[in-house]
Design goal:
Two copies of one chain form a homodimer. The first copy, chain A, contains 16 helices and 26 strands. The first copy, chain A, is an alpha/beta fold.
């Protein structure tokens, strides 16, 4: 027996239309290079209609990709709505990738139109020729006189001559709305093609009281870029909520952010841990009043407990730790204290808040161990985190489906986790960095942390080394502190570790180095270490890597 | 181009399963006749599995209706999940209806199984024979020894002998989950058949920060009955949020409610205005500490501004006014102050909070005037409120679709409203009570209010009287206060009204009475007045009606 409810498609259109009718006077602020731009939801709606007419006039067909290469600005926001609501697909290119990667991604996506911020035109000019699918380049946010090295159209000119009204089409909820590529740290970037339905549901979830709980009375500052996983979905959820939106433009310097928070009375900000570290330093100068700020959503990497504690104690600001991936739209887990934790000692509360949190409603999570069994939720066993839900991808765009990424209807995150009672997820490693020793898993990150607790150690990376009997065994690469250099021995460290980890976790070898190889984003380059030490016979303890 | 997100059905199952895994230790409290019953979400889940096994053993087929005749208790909650999650349809019978209506509804729904609270068995016994589709009656909440006048099974016995685990089937999201009938004040009761999808989305919407914003840290008391529009969806949304749930059982006396709020530290309560009036009186005795209570959700009828003000000023409690119908699951509009109203004078704030509020995200609203045009949102023009959205019905169960209820994909609410800028809806009348005079609408309620402002008037009802030229003209039925009886004249009143309403709103006739006819729920019986005065020639001013 079928229910008798309206067959109402879940699309981006009602988010846009409702906002324009109900919140017409609400403000959207962009902090541009040459000053602050302000307008209302009403203005935003009219310009979004104009942009849709422009796309139509330029011959954009349903489903075609309209790409952006842009900062967090109101014009980028206009594209966020005009493109999917008119039936095309918004493709946000990540300006931080290497030019070759951008070319690869734009070619793979077959982008038809590209909207680019004026100050990113030089970046684009270098690669424009290599993306022949792009029929038109449209320059947004022209703040300075400029001679363009490539043929371009001008966003404001196009909008000025377009009609200010547009009849938004009725779209199927499973139609593609938006396309984001993974950053491709471990292989080729892969595309995640979000549907209207997934955007609708993901935005509702973000606004639930136990996720980020945005209301009309909030002022939201998404510092996470709109070219990175749709700024975590905030351009959709904030307009849905009718909150004031503050877009930081290209300037993400800590003091500039602190200025914005104070001037616009921001209540919720969203960004990665390095942003919060920088902001903390700026705030500690004591020159800003950020009392309006109640919550900083932190994702993208684990946030140290100390930062959570300092924000709370010094500024009364809650850091809300969340976890997700491009493949999960990205909302996966979110960390909040529960009712039974309200009387815990502060220390214990901060330790908990540094976990990745519990699955948001709509996301199912499980963790599968080396034997393929689901691990119990007692915070001890290790397993790979797998998720499923209406805003999780079922396949990558234009890629064959593989058991590396999917498993019986679940998406394999590649994160190794423990899960505590109540569903609190703690990421302990990436599967590729695990040491798989005799059917058991050893977390490289936990072993590194234990080694780095030694007072003579500056930094340490642990990687798997092939082993005949156990398949893999841990190998530790250790950089001693200057005053311990030459004094710290393998025996010292093993003695130290024996008290801290299980005996079968003890590294088979410890190699002392002057420095560890790092990736462009500052992480240990474990791939390089693995390649270096996987096959050759190890010689001595002072082997140089870089 | 289709998106590539998981085809994850929106059903009740993930609400239930996630709650059992993530919130297993959370409490559900029932205040029964013979004491307080407490158990955890974990216990609730196990018993829900047992109930599903019982239904299976009793031969309940997919889509069959399992009815309840029950108060707000944990066993009723078990049925809320076991029935739809096992593939059957939960049908909550309204115990407050006349026995004939219950028979009509149960026969129309063809209920197969009936779960009944022990103290409602006498009510059932009178009509059991007239509902032959019911194969089994199962008695819940047996608190006293009783000789049953009809054959029954015993809920606790059945559960005790059933398996505590159940493999919930994967269901299509458009499958029927739950069936509620309208109260039928203006005709035969009609069934609204909610789908799994609509329950899922409606529950998410309820938990959005700008609707009721329930979190895991809340303690929720649904005073609105679970036999009335699914207690406004709270049994689903509260379990979704993982909040502590307090169920009042059959005792809704104000002091008992105040006791529960104090003892269980309730943070959000939901009920109709008469409940809040009663609670206010109980609280004013000064014997209760209800400082935990932050919000009372009020729906079902307009709430007087004075109540909102008193709750806020005396107890710091916000009354959140919401509007909805059985046909809208019921969430339609919800009233919150906006950011631009925060510095308004209190009086103006309370006036706003007495409005029905703005459409919740997911519900589209418009109002259509007598000429079939949408009215502007300036708070003046009158129109019939129409809504659409994923939790609004597209047709009634087992009824032909009619233009009386639907209009071009919109549901006609039958409420006449004005809509202010920003989307604030104000219900001014029911369409059936409007006076349609020469293509313009006159609100009977507004005219009544103006008449009742006269110091000599006790009460007044205004109804339409047929008119040759204008089709309808207003007729006022007025009960003078005792000391004005015989003194107050039609001329006095018209003179008084001339300053307060448009001249074409002035009643053609005013009839003085000793009392107005009322319905069983205490409202003016306008149908009776219309019948009385529609055809016959009016004689004099002292015509008696009752």
């Amino acid at each position: 027996m079928q229910g008798l409810m309206m067959d109402y498609p879940l699309t981006v259109k009602p988010i846009l239309e409702r906002a324009s009718r109900i919140f017409a006077r609400k403000e959207i602020v962009t902090c541009g290079a040459s000053g602050v731009h302000r307008y209302t939801y009403g203005d935003f709606y009219e310009r979004t209609c104009r942009l849709a007419n422009v796309l139509y006039q330029l011959g954009v067909k349903p489903g075609e990709r309209v790409a952006t290469l842009a900062w967090n600005t109101h014009t980028h926001l206009e594209a966020y709505y005009a493109v999917p609501c008119s039936g095309a697909v918004l493709h946000t290119l990540n300006i931080r990738l290497a030019p070759d990667q951008i070319v690869y991604i734009a070619r793979h996506a077959e982008d038809a139109i590209l909207l680019v911020d004026q100050n990113l035109v030089p970046l684009l000019a270098r690669i424009r020729d290599q993306i022949p699918s792009i029929r038109h380049v449209i320059v947004m946010n022209e703040e300075l006189p400029m001679e363009y090295p490539i043929p371009v159209l001008h966003y404001e000119d196009l909008l000025a001559s377009a009609s200010p009204s547009f009849e938004w089409p009725d779209l199927d909820e499973n139609r593609a709305a938006s396309l984001c590529y993974t950053s491709g740290t471990t292989g080729r970037p892969k595309g995640c093609l979000y549907s209207h339905r997934s955007v609708f549901l993901h935005s509702m979830a973000l606004n639930m009281a136990d996720v980020f709980g945005t209301t009309e009375r909030d002022v939201l500052l998404p510092i996470v870029p709109m070219f990175h996983v749709n700024a975590w979905g905030t351009p959709f959820s904030v307009i849905m909520a009718g909150a004031k939106l503050v877009l930081p433009g290209p300037n993400m310097a800590p003091r500039a952010l602190a200025d914005m928070i104070q001037a616009e009375k921001v209540t919720i900000a969203a960004g990665v841990p390095t942003i919060w570290l920088g902001l903390l330093a700026a705030l500690e100068e004591g020159k800003h009043d950020v009392s309006s700020l109640r919550m900083c959503v932190s994702g993208g990497a684990a946030i140290p407990e100390g930062i959570i504690e300092t924000f709370k104690k010094k500024f009364g600001i809650t850091i809300c730790h969340a976890w997700g991936m491009t493949e999960t739209s990205p909302l996966g887990t979110v960390c909040h204290l529960r009712s039974n934790m309200m009387d815990w000692p502060e220390e214990k509360q901060h330790e908990l808040m540094a976990l990745q949190g519990t699955p948001a409603f709509g996301v199912e999570a499980r963790a599968i161990n080396a034997e393929g069994h689901e691990i119990p939720w007692h915070g001890k066993a290790l397993g790979e985190l797998q998720v499923r839900g209406p805003w999780v991808i079922r396949e990558y765009y234009g890629e064959p489906n593989s058991s590396e990424s999917f498993c019986g209807g679940w998406f394999r995150t590649g994160d190794v986790v423990t899960i505590r009672e109540g569903g609190y997820v703690h990421i302990v490693d990436r599967t590729k960095d695990l040491i798989k020793s005799g059917g058991e898993w050893i977390s490289s990150i936990e072993l590194e942390s234990a080694i780095m607790e030694h007072p003579g150690v500056l930094e340490a990376a642990v990687v798997a080394k092939p082993h005949e009997k156990w398949l893999e065994r841990p190998l530790a690469c250790v950089v001693p502190k200057p005053d311990s250099n030459g004094k710290l021995t393998q025996a010292d460290l093993l003695e130290f570790l024996r008290l801290r980890v299980a005996s079968w976790w003890l590294p088979d070898e410890i190699i002392f180095m002057d420095a560890l190889p790092k990736t462009s984003t500052g992480k240990f380059n474990k791939r390089l270490l693995r390649e270096q030490y996987s096959s050759k016979n190890l010689t001595g303890s002072q082997d140089r890597v870089l």
